[in-house]
């Protein structure tokens, strides 16, 4: 049996498809596997049972989460390194890259990543149910949808200068960022290719290869950014060339890995089936995009509101430092998000509701403990770490004042993405999108504006109000998860696989 047909992270169950048995086995160190003694874990009745199963599930979860976190950090660092080198080119170059990265590319990134996350539900559940042949079809459908979306979003890049001028950027920054945005159009289409690939590989637990490719891309990106931008003096042109090339380098290597046959039945070549059932796929993709974008744009709005305060420059600088720290810590949560989404979708697809529920519990507890440790480190070092980011005494003092809020935000934001990952794994994107609108934009932002401007608490008030929205959203998600009938979710997963192209005859209909 080829390695690509093994299900390393599923509870052991033999699924017949085309007279082929897919079983859990033990492989080499590069693809560690885990086995269990039954279809689904037995009911947990005491602390000893919980401790045993918690340990087993932790190994499976961190097998995915470790490389996923590393991959997220590497990809996040591509844009950050480009900004660092652009700061050595000129002030205007730094402004152009920063604005394009955060506004133009950031807006598109959120939409494309959100739409691509629909595959976490479909590929994960199909793989868990043994419908491995459908993974390649799903990925191709997502390529069709995301590249069509990229064609539409391309106009934002083309008219970036006018858009930036409209929202109040200076003519010089708008012009430079607008030109740089046009040069970055290839990156937009790299997103369209990359995100479906990432979900396709994640659903099969092939995370390590993604981490290796991301690490290689980061090393090469750093070297060539220095060479082209500084040594050869290409400036912004060099930044665009290297950043585009780095993303396409990742895409090409991942495609080569897939096309080389390492994914077995998951990739059987291009098919016209990719153009079937597109509308249902589009609806799930749009729901995923709305859900994710509402979360990504929420704290971006925090910095925007801080820019209208009386001490705007100090507030924005201090808040930017806090958001940068939060951004790095969120990479851990994003990796855990991807891992728990794969685990939940795989186990629901396989008809293992108790295992899916346990995976959620392990992920939430693990993420909470990580967030708590990071928060404590910040609180303990609150008188020292701000000096690393600024020499302005007012900014440093404000960062110290904001540290308790930052610590609380890190703790909550290490739990919330895990719950969102469960929502994606279970296919709840549409419901969570409505929850995000209500908690974030109808409650959190209005409360933040009242506390910040009317009550006079300034940036602390704005952040406290918006953080309250996150707390409410997290509580709502906890309530949804608590009330979930996981056996019913496993049945829904089976129906979803059948609806979007799975072979119903080969799905084992038994659930625990």
Write a compact overview of the structure shown:
The chain has 17 helices and two strands.
What is the fold's blueprint, element by element?
Elements: E1 15-17, E2 20-22, H1 47-87, H2 91-116, H3 118-128, H4 134-158, H5 160-166, H6 171-183, H7 185-203, H8 207-231, H9 236-262, H10 278-306, H11 312-349, H12 353-380, H13 393-413, H14 416-426, H15 429-454, H16 458-483, H17 486-499
Antiparallel strand pairs: 1-2
Shape: globular
Number of domains: 2
Which value, in Å, is the CA radius of gyration?
Answer: 23 Å
Average pLDDT, all residues = 79
Strand percent estimate: under 5%
Arrangement of strands in the largest sheet:
1-2
Summarize the helix and strand pattern as letters: EEHHHHHHHHHHHHHHHHH
Most strands sheet: 2 strands, antiparallel
Task: Estimate the helix proportion, in percent.
Answer: over 70%
- Tell me the distance between the termini: 28 Å
Q: Spans of 5+ residues with little confidence (pLDDT < 50)?
A: 1-8, 10-38, 502-512
Count the DSSP helices: 17
Total strands: the figure is 2
Pairing-aware structural class of the strands and helices? mainly alpha
Pfam families: MatE (PF01554)
InterPro entries: MATE_euk (IPR045069), MATE_fam (IPR002528)
Family: Belongs to the multi antimicrobial extrusion (MATE) (TC 2.A.66.1) family.
Transmembrane segments: 61-85, 91-112, 144-164, 176-195, 207-228, 234-259, 280-306, 318-340, 360-382, 402-424, 431-455, 461-482
